[in-house]
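Why should sequence recovery work at all? Because a backbone constrains its sequence more than one might expect. Tight turns favour small or flexible residues, buried strands favour hydrophobic ones, and helices have their own preferences. The token representation captures these environments compactly. In the example below, the structure is given first.
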């Protein structure tokens, strides 16, 4: 090995060490050998689950690898202690959005951040299983700007206790994850730029498929799930040819709407224009100058500079067409699909004029406000239902829609209700992570029920199972969804076909 190559490998190794937090917990002697090296995990106190945290699934995307497709991870010698989370991806840390929102620290990144952040975490049941275990790979939300696989509410221990392997991942976000630019397009062998965060997700899925058997998992039974931006990521993966064969089931939480703003990718030319504006705001005239900046300088928004939102780009490589077109042509991954939304995360879209007042008559301003909120909830359920209807035209597999309406007990903030992301602790059966809330028996029931639906779907491609209220698959002749909350069961999308027609008209009119 020449000296330059040796120094490069040494630098990457040091970066890997610096990007990991200090160890905690106890080593167990539970050694797993992966394609890239051996890992030592941590057994939980009850001796039922072993976790492996901070596993590199790709090389550090630093230096010349900034704004490049993820590269394979560097192999290591000896045994790597996987008993602690490693760094989350670069973002502006906000430890709590209170008092302006419901996202307390349990929903936010609390550990270190680094550009070297492409790690995943695994929770697996201990004990000899009857066969290879099904696998859940979960993609965090955060508007493609914040989030991490190490956030408290994503802890996979309780799901692993139910007989699956649970995995969370990090992926590049913001300008480091989604910057498109003409120079980046020109230097790419695929003549594409942007979408590095989604390419990270694909690299993580490839790592899982290659290595999960060593942890007792079945590489042919992988479900990918995500919430908000994670849900949008799942939809993107379903339509990308690069993800074909990497997973066999999909779940989107708060992210499957018929309206195009949720399922469309920005054209590359628009993304490149946005990227040039970004470079200008940084005072950079080239990608080389941007690569010479620190990661902190890249993500820090200068006062007065334009705000830029980040997301998927139709680059001709990862995404060859608009998602709606891909579904219309039947070229999406046809796999079992589950989706839904929360009661208090959507607003009514449309007119509140004469037609609205005829369908939702009120006697006071207060009552009218409540009816507008009700219309927003019904419209939200309809929006997801319409997506499943569109999907069903060229899909043979079943789909299921849920509507979550359980508010985390919070006497000080009843206005938050069943807020965006509020279902995640119930999905992961992680109520213990919610500090400062006095949970009720109902919450325990809801979390047990909801996590069981998710685990059943991962195991069987169907959320139903013993002891659970029956959840009917999507049927285009029935406008129904599954309500999950204090009570569980199928409910109508809206209280009347006339309302459905009106709400649909308002959605489509607003989407023009």
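From this structural description, the recovered sequence reads:
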């Amino acid at each position: 090995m020449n000296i330059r190559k040796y120094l490069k490998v040494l630098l990457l190794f040091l970066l890997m060490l610096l990007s990991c937090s200090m160890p905690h917990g106890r080593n167990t002697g539970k050694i797993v050998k992966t394609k890239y090296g051996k890992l030592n995990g941590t057994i939980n106190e009850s001796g039922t689950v072993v976790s492996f945290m901070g596993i590199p699934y790709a090389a550090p995307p630093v230096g010349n690898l900034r704004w490049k497709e993820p590269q394979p991870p560097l192999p290591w010698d000896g045994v790597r202690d996987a008993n602690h989370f490693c760094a989350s991806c670069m973002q502006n840390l906000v430890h709590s959005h209170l008092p302006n929102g419901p996202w307390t620290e349990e929903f936010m990144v609390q550990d270190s951040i680094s550009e070297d952040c492409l790690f995943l975490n695994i929770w697996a049941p201990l004990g000899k299983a009857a066969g290879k275990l099904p696998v859940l790979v979960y993609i965090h939300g955060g508007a493609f700007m914040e989030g991490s696989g190490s956030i408290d509410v994503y802890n996979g221990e309780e799901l692993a206790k139910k007989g699956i392997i649970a995995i969370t991942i990090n992926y590049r976000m913001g300008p480091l994850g989604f910057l498109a630019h003409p120079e980046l397009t020109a230097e790419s062998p695929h003549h594409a730029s942007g979408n590095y965060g989604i390419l990270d997700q694909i690299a993580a899925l490839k790592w899982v498929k290659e290595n999960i058997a060593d942890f007792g998992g079945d590489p042919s039974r992988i479900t990918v799930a995500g919430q908000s931006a994670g849900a949008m990521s799942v939809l993107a993966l379903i339509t990308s040819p690069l993800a074909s064969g990497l997973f066999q089931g999909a779940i989107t939480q708060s992210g499957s709407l018929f309206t195009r703003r949720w399922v469309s990718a920005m054209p590359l030319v628009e993304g490149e224009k946005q990227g040039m504006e970004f470079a200008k705001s940084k005072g950079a005239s080239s990608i080389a100058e941007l690569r010479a900046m620190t990661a902190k300088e890249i993500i820090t928004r200068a006062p007065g500079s334009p705000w830029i939102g980040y997301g998927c780009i139709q680059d001709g490589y990862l995404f060859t067409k608009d998602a709606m077109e891909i579904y219309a042509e039947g070229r999406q991954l046809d796999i079992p699909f589950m989706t839904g939304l929360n009661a208090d995360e959507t607003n009514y879209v449309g007119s509140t004029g004469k037609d609205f007042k005829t369908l939702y008559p009120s006697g006071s301003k207060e009552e009218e406000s409540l009816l507008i909120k009700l219309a927003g909830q019904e419209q939200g359920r309809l929006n997801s239902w319409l997506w499943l209807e569109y999907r069903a035209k060229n899909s043979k597999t079943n789909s299921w829609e849920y509507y979550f309406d359980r508010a985390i007990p919070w006497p000080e903030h009843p206005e938050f209700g069943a807020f965006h992301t509020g279902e995640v602790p119930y999905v992961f059966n992680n109520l213990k992570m919610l500090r400062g809330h006095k949970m009720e028996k109902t919450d325990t029931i809801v979390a047990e029920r909801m996590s069981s639906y998710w685990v059943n779907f991962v195991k069987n491609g169907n959320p139903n199972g013993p002891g659970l209220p029956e959840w009917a698959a999507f049927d285009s002749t029935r406008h129904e969804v599954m309500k999950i909350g204090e009570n569980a069961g199928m409910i109508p999308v809206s209280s009347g076909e006339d309302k459905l027609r009106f709400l649909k008209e308002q959605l489509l009119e607003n989407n023009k």
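A few observations help interpret the result. The longest strand covers residues 217-227.
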